[in-house]
Amino acid sequence: MKYLPLLLILSSGLALAQTTPAVPTETETAAPAVPLIDIMGQGGVMMIPLAALALLALILIILYMLTIRRATVVTNRFMNAADSMLRKRDFMGLLSYSHRRSEMVARLCAKSLQFVTENPTASVDEVKDVAETEGSRQSSILAQRITWLADIGAIAPMLGLLGTVIGMIKSFMLISQGSVGNLPMQLASGVSEALVTTASGLVVGITAMVFHSYFKGRVNRLLSEFEAASTHLISLLTSQLKNQATPGVTGQQVAPVHPHPHPQTGEMYAPQDVVMPHGQ
């Protein structure tokens, strides 16, 4: 009889173990992985323009990585050759060499030298005006190239927001129809479309803006080097034009002419050189 309580406890434990469901393991409760392409496919029709913007942003990023660099703006090879030719006043040779180069500073130099050769009587200020105008044009071309990424960064989130609104409209239209048969699944479809388009627009927009900021810093650094190089070349060109416009032997001074006293009279002028007024 003394073992009766122990037997009761064991029998109740066995009964509880048989009635309690088994706890699922971690592998059994884990949701199946959904491929990314399937998630993107749930975004609806707005995923088409978002995919096009993403592809365009990728192409622009690769293109800017290859083209926005120092070799396309100014190189030491061109600067050394241009400095040597300008000091020798070989304007035609430098003009021909500049046409064969692709740097921005080479295009500036070619434009300035072409104006000098076509207008030999042009003043130094006119040459500087032409150089400044061409330099501003080249700088604006380089700076405006990266605005495409800024536009994509602004448009992509707006498209994502539009997709969100379309998805929510679909969900509320289902609610307004009053069909409660499979309503939770239909609402989940509209909400998932809204969330997927929002996330996609933000991903594309944030990526575009990040690379736009990176390329903007690179462009500003290259424009500083372009301004320094163009200032050096134009200053050297205008100085050579000034020296060419005033030829002569340097280092010689003309002595002033002073009247000398006459060797016989000691006067400053000879008697026959003095013109007496009439009436004397």
Automatic annotation (TrEMBL):
Keyword field contains Magnesium: no
GO BP of this protein: protein import
MotA/TolQ/ExbB proton channel domain sequence ranges: 104-227
GO CC terms in record: plasma membrane
Mode of membrane association: Multi-pass membrane protein
Transmembrane feature ranges: 46-67, 146-175, 195-215
Region (Disordered): 248-280
Superkingdom as given in the UniProt entry: Bacteria
Keywords, sorted A to Z: Cell membrane, Membrane, Protein transport, Signal, Transmembrane, Transmembrane helix, Transport
Recorded family membership: Belongs to the exbB/tolQ family.
Name of this chain's protein: Biopolymer transporter ExbB
